[in-house]
Amino acid sequence: MSFIHIRPNxxxxxxxxxxxxxxxxxxxxxxxxxxVGLGIAATSCYGRPLTxxxxxxxxxxxxxxxxxxxxxxxxxxxxxxxxxxxxxxxxNNFYEFGLTKNIWENAQNLPTDPWKLEVSGLVKNPTTxxxxxxxTKFPLxxxxxxxxxxxxxxxxVPWLGFPMAKLLEAVEPTSDAKYxxxxxxxxxxxxxxxxxxxxxxxxxxxxxxxxEEMANELAFFAVGIYGRTIPKQHGAPIRMVLxxxxxxxxxxxxxxxxxxxxxxxxxWNTIAPNEYKFEANVEPDVPHPRWxxxxxxxxxxxxxxxxxxxxTVIYNGxxxxxxxxxx
Length: 327
Prior knowledge:
Blueprint: H1 26-32, H2 55-59, E1 69-71, H3 85-88, E2 116-121, E3 127-130, H4 131-136, E4 140-148, E5 153-163, H5 164-171, E6 179-184, E7 206-210, H6 211-215, E8 220-225, E9 228-229, E10 239-241, E11 254-260, H7 267-271, E12 295-298, E13 309-311, H8 319-322
Parallel strand pairs: 1-4, 2-11, 5-12
Antiparallel strand pairs: 2-3, 4-5, 5-8, 6-7, 6-11, 8-9, 8-10, 12-13
């Protein structure tokens, strides 16, 4: 399997980066959540201001240093400054651990060692990877990607990991494999969300791609971030990163990957197919049923409604890599 690298026209000359130091059917969702009344696109997006205060405990969640990686020069600059980790790692969606963005403390209950990642289905070489394999089996690289949430906020993140294409080469999907299903860790005793029943929701969290999407040069498995192993609130120890798609496509804490002949269900598309599409590409001219996607707010210090706003770009700016997939 070969891949052609096309230099994207959105890449800009390397800039000085900001230093690290410096919603699916709402009624059904709220019914399942016993009337909690926390709308993803409302309350959870506009929580308390992000500031530098209280970061000491947060810093302890940042993981262990990684040194066995190489920066990929093709993805050394996303065109915008890096989001500081003190903001990126305390503003996260991880509904297994709660409905607000401030779930980083609850997420520390996620058990990551030992870890098993099972790859099965229509492949010639079914494999199970352990925790050490995730850091050593494939050469690790750093890629700075734009990250765009369907809720119209955005970040720029330096991920550490390996291209999904490397795993494809290792397991060798058969010619019958047309889709891939990704399943996240779930244990209702640990990932029960807030103190309400999640039993009517389609856990575990699961996502899916066409095999051509997984083979795309941009598709990435992240095991680290900001030079360290990936924090639990970001989906430790391994998560999907698909920068041309909305962030909910990036399943966290992956435990199973299954190659299939038919399109799998996905979590949000199952709950509300009219709002969350299977492909879920970033498209500014295609609004969410309840808000526009023309603009995005860049996560940073202060109140969310005062964050810097930018125009949304088709495929999040990665059209040179992926537009042919959707011609």
